[in-house]
Design a protein that fits this description.
One of its GO terms (molecular function) is purine-nucleoside phosphorylase activity. Its EC number is 2.4.2.1. Belongs to the PNP/MTAP phosphorylase family. Keywords: Glycosyltransferase, Purine salvage, Transferase. Helix content is about 35%, strand content about 20%. The protein has ten helices and nine strands. A five-stranded mixed beta barrel has the order 5-8-7-6-9. The mean pLDDT is about 90. Bound molecules: the ligand O=P(O)(O)O[C@@H]1C[C@H](O)[C@@H](CO)O1 and guanine. Guanine binds next to strand 5, strand 8 and strand 9.
């Protein structure tokens, strides 16, 4: 590594080579578990798991990541099979507000690319701005607004690594249309359709939740759900040509009225996540099982 924040190709390669030497699994799908949604990883069969701290070059989990994941299982990369398809799951992700640079936040994505991953599934907990949404709804992400990115905070800043992708990558259509349609079909067949939405996710820096004026601004901008993650990971995945699918679990309605006495807190976010964790697990499992991927195990 050159400097504290500069990461070079060899750093990603070192982590990927180490993982390839430690597991026989050769995943084509990577899944990032949002706050409280780490149970997804427990559904993997024939698991090999690695604490982030044990993987050479990997960023380290902070206290937040541990508190917001499944107790005792935070900060792990879990390899295994979902309905016979080989996957790798991040149980606990890295957030910008924890103090990580965006290169660190997105480090695992490029490692996944070098492992041979072709599809990234991202999940997160988010607050809703859309008045028709309810707590516990699942929003299939159609598009995102990357507010830190618009202000110049972008993991792709700096010299471009051509081995991963082009200097100026397009982001229109980054959330795969085919997978979105498939998710809706699955929800219909599983009887989930009444609480599944499709919308625009907005990333803000956090760690504070929105002021009322900020919430009103986001609402006017056409944001359906707001959270503190996902966009940087999706950017980096899109840059290196991965297929992306994203889900937001609506854990709260963002307060938009000065008359409203309710306020959100992280504990209630985790409570709702827990309530819908199993549904999300079922949806993601079914989606992975229907994906047209080569299932390679070495
Ligand atoms: O990792 P995600 O985006 O699910 O985490 C959400 C956003 C904040 O980290 C936290 C707020 O409750 O949950
Ligand atoms: N920024 C933001 N992140 C969240 N994560 C879960 N709920 C929320 C919310 O209301 N706002």
């Amino acid at each position: 590594m050159h400097s504290k924040d500069q990461i070079c190709y060899e750093d990603y390669q070192q982590s990927a080579d180490w993982l390839l030497s430690q597991t026989q699994h050769r995943p084509k799908v990577a899944i990032i578990c949002g706050s409280g949604l780490g149970l997804l990883a427990d559904a993997l069969k024939c698991q090999d798991s690695f604490k982030y701290g044990d993987i050479p070059g990997f960023p380290q989990s902070t206290v937040h990541a541990i508190a917001s994941s499944v107790q005792g299982h935070a900060g792990r990369l879990v390899f295994g099979e979902l309905k016979g398809k080989t996957c790798v799951c991040m149980q606990g992700r890295f957030h910008m507000y924890e103090g990580h640079s965006l290169c660190k936040v997105t480090f695992p994505i490029r490692v996944f690319k070098l492992l041979g991953v072709e599809t990234l599934i991202v999940t997160n907990a988010a607050g809703s701005l859309n008045d028709t949404y309810h707590c516990g709804d699942i929003m299939v992400i159609k598009d995102h607004i990357n507010l830190p990115g618009l202000a110049g905070l972008n993991p792709l800043n700096g010299p471009n690594e051509e081995k991963f992708g082009p200097r100026f990558p397009p982001m229109s259509g980054v959330y795969d249309k085919h997978l979105r349609r498939m998710a809706f079909d699955i929800c219909k067949s599983l009887g989930f359709a009444q609480f599944v939405q499709e919308g625009v996710y907005c990333m803000v820096g956090g760690p504070n939740f929105e002021s009322i004026a900020e919430a009103r601004l986001l609402h006017r901008l056409g944001v359906d759900a707001v959270g503190m993650s996902t966009a940087p990971e999706v950017l980096v995945a899109g840059h290196c040509g991965m297929r992306v699918f994203g889900l937001s679990l609506i854990t709260n309605k963002v307060v938009k009225s000065y008359e409203d006495t309710e306020s959100v807190n992280h504990e209630s976010v985790l409570e709702v996540s827990k309530m819908r964790s199993e549904t999300l697990q079922t949806l993601v499992t079914e989606l992975v099982s229907r994906m047209d991927i080569n299932n390679n195990t070495a």
